């Protein structure tokens, strides 16, 4: 965690460098009182991410026994930075507090599961959601219903418990599941989406090309799946 950087930038941005004024203990006490709850919140999300990653790794190992291939290609995770959390709360006009972040933001913890084949996505999602400490909050299937941009992925918002020194806490985690091809497409499209100062006509042309790429890439996913099925049959 880049806690120290955040701490430094938060402090110098607000009040300038801290002065201990001869009472370093009092200053540290104040710092801990201000920042420990924030660290604790971020740590809870980090633990939720670890729990979810472990569940997918276990499923990957177990399913590979039946399938003779690892259905999961890679798992990438992140916990939103403090800056992004504060900016998102501000944008939504919500109170900028820990309680408000925990209640209103469902994507502070994010796990992206990349599979080789499209049929593995729904199969793994069902096995994952069947676990008794996973509660489905929201499911958006952008594979069956792609976005107008061409974006495809299965999105799950779930709640899962983490066990802290103060007891059990249910945490939101956003899970994005997609194929290697969908992941490749999404990372390129993300670059266009966040590119500043791009000529609007060029942006429109590229968006159209990307939409066409998404169609071709979905067809490629389908073809690869058929080939794998034939290999398994013969
Ligand atoms: P970033 O920078 O990736 O974090 P909602 O109101 O909750 O239903 P929301 O919040 O847009 O709608 O949720 P949705 O549609 O499930 O999208 C959440 C995340 O999915 C986005 O996070 C992106 O990561 C990804 N995503 C959704 N649509 C697209 C798309 O068209 N292209 C790409 N490349 N990614 C997409 P953020 O916070 O928007 O962005």
Describe this structure in words.
The protein is an alpha+beta fold. It has a domain at 29-180: 2-Layer Sandwich (Beta Polymerase, domain 2), CATH 3.30.460.10. It has seven helices and five strands, in the order H-H-E-H-H-E-H-E-E-E-H-H. It has helices at 3-15, 24-67, 82-91, 98-104, 118-129, 180-193, 200-233; strands spanning 72-79, 109-115, 135-141, 154-164, 167-179. A five-stranded mixed beta sheet has the order 1-2-5-4-3. A hairpin with a 2-residue loop joins strand 4 and strand 5 (167-179). Helix 6 (180-193) runs antiparallel to helix 7. It is globular, with a radius of gyration of 22 Å. The N and C termini lie far apart (49 Å). The model is unreliable at 1-13 (pLDDT under 50).
Helix/strand order, N-terminal first: HHEHHEHEEEHH
CATH architecture of the domain at 29-180: 2-Layer Sandwich
Radius of gyration over all CA atoms, rounded: 22 Å
Based on Cα principal axes, name the global outline. Answer: globular
């Amino acid at each position: 965690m880049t806690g120290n950087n955040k701490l430094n930038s938060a402090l110098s941005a607000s009040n300038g460098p801290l002065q201990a004024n001869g009472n370093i203990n009092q200053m540290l006490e104040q710092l801990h009182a201000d920042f420990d709850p924030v660290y604790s919140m971020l740590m809870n999300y980090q633990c939720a991410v670890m729990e979810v990653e472990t569940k997918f790794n276990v499923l990957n190992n177990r399913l590979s026994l039946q399938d003779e291939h690892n259905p999961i290609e890679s798992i990438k995770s992140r916990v939103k930075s403090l800056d992004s959390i504060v900016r998102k709360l501000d944008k939504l006009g919500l109170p900028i507090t820990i309680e408000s972040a925990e209640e209103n933001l469902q994507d502070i913890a994010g796990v992206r599961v990349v599979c080789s084949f499209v049929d593995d996505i729904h199969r793994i999602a069902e096995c994952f959601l069947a676990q008794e400490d996973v509660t489905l909050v929201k499911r958006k299937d952008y594979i069956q219903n792609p976005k107008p941009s061409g974006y495809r992925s299965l999105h799950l918002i779930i709640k899962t418990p983490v066990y802290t020194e103060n007891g059990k806490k249910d945490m939101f985690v956003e899970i994005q599941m997609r194929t290697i091809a969908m992941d490749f497409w999404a990372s390129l499209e993300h670059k266009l989406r966040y590119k500043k100062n791009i000529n609007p006509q060029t942006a429109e042309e590229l968006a159209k090309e990307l939409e066409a790429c998404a169609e071709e890439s979905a067809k490629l996913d389908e073809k690869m799946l058929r080939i794998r099925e034939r290999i398994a049959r013969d």
